[in-house]
């Protein structure tokens, strides 16, 4: 992007954010940290005795084992762990030095019946969890909260212990409220942790952020490579005239160009290659915003018009579906257009009169058809009538008519039984009621043109009246058409940009 190093800024952000997240998580707030996890919170059933044999008698409130009948009991297992970067000692707990208690586990709507330490990562932790060290239980009757007090246990990095508690419901019904650990560390924190078998949401968030940064960098890179720079956008009106066969591709390219160069206003007046050349020859000398697009090179009589090759375009023979013919030899096509074949039976089709449709004289597509398919030895075409008259009268034998532009050709072939014509291939492929016909068994494709087996193709040209000012909208649009996104648009319409051919200068498959 001009004048703004967006890619560099994205790279800096992509590096800085993970570093800042690491410093925040592990140096500033996570250097000293205690975590807790509620690993079990379940009603008492017969399964509890099998999982923790001999533990329930320890938890009964009377030492002789004769306990009063208890109702609605539950068992909770809480893991306390040092999951920070440094050790935690007794002085790190943020409670008065005279207070032995460092942590409190709150059980809302339940009172503690009994408790026991069930697992120590290091036997030395047991010295800090003996009776008299501050470990015990009590009840906040006013708020109906059972509380387990735990001492200021010194814990090395990675140490943990577990507390098993049996409780009785004092209020409410249904699921028990979640136990909560209350404590503070000097220069650190106490927080709930999650099982390490899964992926941390913070880690997922960081990964997602980095993926987003990379994706934005990729898109920005594509845009910088493929779209016109603001300095390369001409400002003003650009009128495009000429070939109706190449019109759809040029219109789509203009739409793509206008998204990035809003200062260019397009006008389209496509009514044939020859008319487009005449328009630019007459009006283009004083109007650098006028371009003619043609199928094939200009003819004689236009000495002031300068060419720019754009792309190799594919053309095809087309027939009405009633013809039932899928392939014609080049000689059969010549015979049909010379009037020597008057019924489709003669070339393998049904008993149906042939209706030959030509483009009007001056059409670039017609000249391409003459040059590449009919050849110079073809006799003059028989006299033509209007296609509308031909459809209404339906005369016997071969009949001829002319279509002035591509859309008229496609509509005539789709509507007129027994008809044959020709058009730009991508337009024909998208038109219902029109069937493409291969020539000598070869289809309209780039590889078949390059190996010289498919004959019906042409070079698309842009013509201006004299040299264009470098900052004109016409010059800027031509640069767009021959590079980046413009080439992609032309390619999407079945055309091959000249730079991709063996001879880019002449835009020819010939080496």
From TrEMBL:
One Pfam family named in its UniProt record: PBP_like_2
Keywords tagged on the record: Membrane, Signal, Transmembrane, Transmembrane helix
Ranges annotated as spanning the membrane: 6-30, 203-222
Domain PBP as annotated: residue spans: 228-482
Name the UniProt record assigns to this protein: Substrate-binding domain-containing protein
Organism: Nocardia tengchongensis
């Amino acid at each position: 992007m001009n004048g703004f190093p967006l890619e560099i800024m994205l790279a800096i952000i992509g590096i800085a954010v993970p570093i800042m997240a690491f410093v925040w998580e592990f140096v500033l707030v996570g250097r000293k940290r205690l975590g807790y996890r509620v690993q079990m919170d379940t009603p008492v059933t017969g399964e509890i005795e099998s999982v923790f044999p001999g533990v329930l008698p320890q938890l009964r409130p009377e030492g002789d084992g004769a306990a009063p009948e208890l109702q609605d009991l539950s068992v909770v297992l809480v893991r306390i762990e040092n999951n920070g970067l440094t050790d935690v000692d007794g002085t790190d707990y943020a409670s008065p030095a005279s207070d032995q208690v460092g942590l409190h586990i709150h059980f809302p709507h339940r009172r503690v019946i009994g408790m026991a330490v069930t697992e120590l990562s290091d036997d030395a932790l047991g010295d800090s969890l003996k009776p008299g060290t501050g470990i015990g239980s009590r009840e906040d009757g006013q708020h109906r909260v059972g509380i387990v007090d735990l001492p200021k246990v010194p814990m090395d990095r990675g140490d943990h212990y577990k507390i098993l508690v049996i409780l009785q419901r004092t209020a409410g019904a249904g699921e028990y409220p979640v136990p909560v650990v209350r404590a503070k560390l000097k220069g650190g924190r106490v927080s709930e942790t999650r099982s390490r078998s899964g992926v941390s949401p913070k880690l997922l968030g960081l990964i997602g952020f980095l993926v987003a940064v990379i994706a934005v960098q990729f898109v920005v890179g594509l845009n910088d490579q493929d779209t016109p720079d603001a300095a390369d956008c001409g400002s003003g009106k650009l009128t495009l005239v000429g070939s109706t066969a190449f019109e759809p591709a040029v219109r789509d390219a203009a739409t793509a160009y206008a998204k990035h160069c809003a200062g260019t206003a397009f006008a389209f007046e496509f009514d044939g290659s020859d008319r487009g050349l005449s328009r630019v020859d007459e009006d283009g000398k004083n109007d650098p915003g006028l371009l003619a697009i043609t199928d094939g090179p200009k003819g004689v009589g236009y000495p002031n018009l300068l060419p720019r090759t754009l792309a190799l375009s594919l053309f095809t023979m087309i027939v009405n579906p009633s013809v039932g013919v899928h392939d014609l030899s080049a000689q059969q096509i010549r015979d049909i257009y010379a009037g020597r074949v008057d019924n489709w039976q003669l070339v393998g089709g049904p008993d149906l009169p042939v209706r030959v449709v030509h483009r009007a004289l001056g059409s670039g597509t017609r000249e391409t058809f003459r040059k590449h398919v009919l050849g110079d030895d073809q006799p003059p075409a028989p006299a033509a009538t209007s296609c509308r008259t031909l459809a209404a009268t339906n005369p016997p034998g071969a009949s001829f008519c002319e279509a002035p532009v591509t859309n008229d050709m496609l509509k005539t072939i789709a509507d007129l039984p027994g008809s044959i014509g020709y058009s730009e291939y991508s337009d024909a492929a998208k038109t219902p009621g029109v069937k493409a016909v291969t020539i000598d068994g070869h289809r309209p494709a780039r590889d078949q043109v390059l190996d010289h087996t498919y004959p019906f193709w042409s070079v698309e040209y842009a013509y201006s009246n004299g040299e264009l000012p470098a900052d004109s909208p016409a010059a800027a649009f031509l640069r767009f058409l021959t590079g980046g996104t413009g080439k992609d648009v032309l390619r999407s319409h079945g055309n091959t940009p000249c730079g991709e051919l063996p001879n880019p200068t002449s835009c020819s498959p010939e080496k």
